[in-house]
């Protein structure tokens, strides 16, 4: 308990604090007296017990694991639980779990009685670095991911690093993709630290690296909550990533798709005249060791890229890098998208499936 | 077409204009090029055709009539229709119909892609005076009405008075309750005008009275969008009204419940030391001729009043009147709630079931 807790302030219309450290599940404090706790069924029971002992929720709602909880049907059921428990408008909703459960819990908080206080306790690396900060909440539709939701920032976020110790090494490396992305678009010191052997559950660099990766997102969303401009930079690597998730019917985990997508975006950045950052993105892929991809057809993948939620009536804009920490938005000619797709696929095929290779460049 | 269109400005973080007049369905203009139109199945086809010719929606979604459309299940289906039609984030949702359909359409607009532009075309008196202005959107749960939703103001509201000509006299008089309420809490000139024979579909006082009744709500929500304070005054008469709707399983229409509820609130106001305004509320009831009530047990009704959505952890506060246009919030001792309930029930039993009686006081 003597360990340092790192604090990141998120400013904007409704400021809040993200705390990162050990033992936070038993130290969280909430102003509201009546609390609904929402967590996925596969969360280790000891985490649920700790939070229940700390917050004494009036109702605990268990939801399906992973993205299975992100449906309108599950949401309707959760809302009914809250209403049956008479959660008042000055009550609060707490989401405990991975990004899927906290996305659902946030949309429930945004919608119940037209909005109650929301708090989040992410228990995965992706949940901490990406989902917990920024106020995006929502569920999926049969027609696509994250098509429904609200901007509903939490009042506080607690990232208890103890919860990461249950993650397998594969899931931990998967989740590191968003932290590495924050290194590329904003804080190059993260690139070396994310690949350091001490960036692991229980490792000496875990909390500090995590806190700095979260701080990148916090700074961006502080300046642009509703994605009018700069916030789009956080989508670096995500246009291809979402398409890869769709063509593989979500068998490719999000963090691995982002790993692949960052390398594609680095290749596009280079061909559009930017510095060559592909050494970094390849180094990350060698470290992450993602699931190998099947042979993919550019046309099939491009159909999904065009349909991406970030597209407006004029089509897709990619987030590219002029250099490290210099992101910008650009439309890329289709001939170049196709050419770099072929090169990217060749690079992906050449990845070793053996343990961590040495860093490139 | 030479008729005057009345305009009411709603200020606040996102200002918008309410237009009231004849022929507006064919004159509405919307900045967004891709539009989803949502309307109830029982809306006269000629209104739908007019709006389709005016706005050329990319998708029209028909929903069940009245409150049957205000469910999470219907909402999920509407959202899927929008996604299947690829409505983009710079598209718009237009709600055409009564308050239920526009409440649903607004919540769909608030949630689809985390929020797209919303416009509303109310076609009932209640929809125009109450639901269309103020940004409250949402659906019901099996556990209660309006328990889920968002504050999502429209970009514009068109109240085409031609649509009111399809309403039966009973439904028109029902809807007049909210206009009369606005007279009591803010603009006493409305009291005489709402009861005037020219306040009827096609009548000489229709548009002007409607516009002034809407202006009362517009002024209140301009100052208090999310119901932190003054907006609660709009709930005058609604605490008993919601309870009456619940105990009658919603067989009592909302406007009639509000008519009864205003008289109860006027009795409470008098016993709590205010001016005697019961002559006004009785005059309205004699004009409205609501469905007679069964014998009601105070305890049963009070249980619902205590559970009202407006209650916080401390219990129910009633909106009372010191005098015309002088609303305030107060907790009322249960002994007085019971005593005035008995008196109110006696008054309600004494209402004539014959055509309009002369005004009291």
UniProtKB/TrEMBL annotation, chains A, B:
NCBIfam families: aroB. This is 3-dehydroquinate synthase. Pathway: Metabolic intermediate biosynthesis; chorismate biosynthesis; chorismate from D-erythrose 4-phosphate and phosphoenolpyruvate: step 2/7. Zn(2+) binds at residues 178, 238, 254. GO terms for molecular function: 3-dehydroquinate synthase activity. It catalyses: 7-phospho-2-dehydro-3-deoxy-D-arabino-heptonate = 3-dehydroquinate + phosphate. The gene is aroB. It is found in: Cytoplasm. The keyword Cytoplasm applies. Residues 175-311 form the 3-dehydroquinate synthase C-terminal domain. InterPro entries: Dehydroquinate_synthase (IPR050071), DHQ_synth_AroB (IPR016037), DHQ_synth_fam (IPR030963), DHQS/DOIS_N (IPR030960), DHQS_C (IPR056179). Residues 61-173 form the 3-dehydroquinate synthase N-terminal domain. NAD(+) binds at residues 99-103, 123-124, 136, 145, 163-166. Its EC number is 4.2.3.4. It is an enzyme of class 4 (lyase). Its main location: cytoplasm.
């Amino acid at each position: 308990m003597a360990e340092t807790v790192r604090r990141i302030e998120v400013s904007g219309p409704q400021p809040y604090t993200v705390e990162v450290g050990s033992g936070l599940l038993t130290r969280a404090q909430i102003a509201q007296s009546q609390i609904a706790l929402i967590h996925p069924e596969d969360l280790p029971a000891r985490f649920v017990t700790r939070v229940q002992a700390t917050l004494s929720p009036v109702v605990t709602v268990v939801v399906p694991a992973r993205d299975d909880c992100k449906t309108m049907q599950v949401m309707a059921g959760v809302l009914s639980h809250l209403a049956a428990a008479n959660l008042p408008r000055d009550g609060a909703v707490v989401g405990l779990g991975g990004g899927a459960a906290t996305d659902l819990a946030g949309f429930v908080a945004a919608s119940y009685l037209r909005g109650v206080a929301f708090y989040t306790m992410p228990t995965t690396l992706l949940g901490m670095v990406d989902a917990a900060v920024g106020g995006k909440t929502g569920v999926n539709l049969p027609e696509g991911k994250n098509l429904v939701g609200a901007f509903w920032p939490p009042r506080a976020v607690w990232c208890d690093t103890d919860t990461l110790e249950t993650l397998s090494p594969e899931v931990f490396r998967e989740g590191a993709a968003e932290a590495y992305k924050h290194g590329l678009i904003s804080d190059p010191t993260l690139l070396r630290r994310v690949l350091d052997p001490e960036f692991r559950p229980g490792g000496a660099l875990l909390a500090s690296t995590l806190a700095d990766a979260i701080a990148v997102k916090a700074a961006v969303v502080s300046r642009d909550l509703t994605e009018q401009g700069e916030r789009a930079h956080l989508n670096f690597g995500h246009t291809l990533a979402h398409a890869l998730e769709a063509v593989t019917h979500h068998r490719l985990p999000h963090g691995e798709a982002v790993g692949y997508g960052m390398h594609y975006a680095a290749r596009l950045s280079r061909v559009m005249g930017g510095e060559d950052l592909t050494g970094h993105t390849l180094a990350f892929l060698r470290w992450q060791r993602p699931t190998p991809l099947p042979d993919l057809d550019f046309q099939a993948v491009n159909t999904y890229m065009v349909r991406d939620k970030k597209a407006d009536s004029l089509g897709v804009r990619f987030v590219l890098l002029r250099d490290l920490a210099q992101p910008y938005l650009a439309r890329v000619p289709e001939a170049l998208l196709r050419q770099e797709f072929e090169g990217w696929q060749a690079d992906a095929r050449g990845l070793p499936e053996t343990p961590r290779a040495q860093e490139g460049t």
